[in-house]
Amino acid sequence: MKKVEIKDLSDNFFEAISKEWMLVTAGDKDKFNTMTANWGGIGWLWNKPVAFVFIRPERYTHEFVEQSDRLTLSFLGEENKKIHAVCGSKSGRDIDKVKATGLVPVFTEQGSVLFEQSRLSLECKKLYTDMIKPELFLDKESLAKWYDGSHGGFHEIYIVEIEHVWKRG
């Protein structure tokens, strides 16, 4: 993986997050977990390049995100949908996702976890977190659709500063 400047990114993150999906990974070389996500975004906040992601507390990865100062967002390309299928449907409590998918972890100087298969990875530092609150929904249809009990509990939102960008090659 080679480090690139954030200003040199030309990715369409609407497409990347919604169609390609991403892996959210936290932990360190001794123990980490990753999960597939396709809710989130990229932007500019507090004069910093940021990303935001949503994780339900019942997800195993949530424990790692809570215990870590950093997390990574890895984009594997559409050719790796099978990896996303496993990482989005199986829990790291039950299986070794690295072994099950063939993911090859790479560790940064800060101790963050990237994967050799990633075409693009964002190494991020946590800035802010809060729980989604039902009483604050203005759009009651989204509340009813996504939080009816059949999908799981309310998400926690994490706003993270994008500290480093890594590309394959």
Automatic annotation (TrEMBL):
Residues 18-166 form the Flavin reductase like domain. InterPro entries: Flavin_Rdtase-like_dom, Flavoredoxin, Split_barrel_FMN-bd. One of its GO terms (molecular function) is FMN binding. Belongs to the flavoredoxin family. This is Flavin reductase like domain-containing protein. The lineage of its organism: Bacteria, Pseudomonadati, Bacteroidota, Bacteroidia, Bacteroidales.
